[in-house]
Amino acid sequence: MRTMGLDLGTKTCGVALSDPMGIIARAVVTLRFASDDYADALKQVLALIKPNDVTNIVLGFPKHMNNDIGISGQYCLRFKELLEAETDVPIIMWDERLTTAAAQRILIMADVSRKKRKQVIDQMAAVQILQGYLDSRSRY
Description:
Blueprint: E1 2-8, E2 12-18, E3 25-32, H1 38-49, E4 54-61, H2 71-86, E5 91-95, H3 99-109, H4 114-138
Parallel strand pairs: 1-4, 4-5
Antiparallel strand pairs: 1-2, 2-3
């Protein structure tokens, strides 16, 4: 039983998974799809649920710093609806503000090359989203 973290973009979706105990998030893959082809993104995400025994999905919810929901946030809400129509797995929206910046800092501190950072940044952002969620649950 694992939790999946998603960082949805317009052409990519970073995917992370928790360990079976729900303590640690790890990067899995960056799904790639044609610009704004969320049907393809959905298909790829759905293909990962059963083989990984996913029981919850944490979807990054981009908000502006003033808490407004912009166009990216609207896309994520729509993607959540698409997921809910196709699976019984609960989907939790998680504030993803500054997760990409945090992921970028981690990769820079690890001395990962710019080219390699570009390839894994979405996965690392998904890890940040998922780990934030997992950590919040352990506080209670």
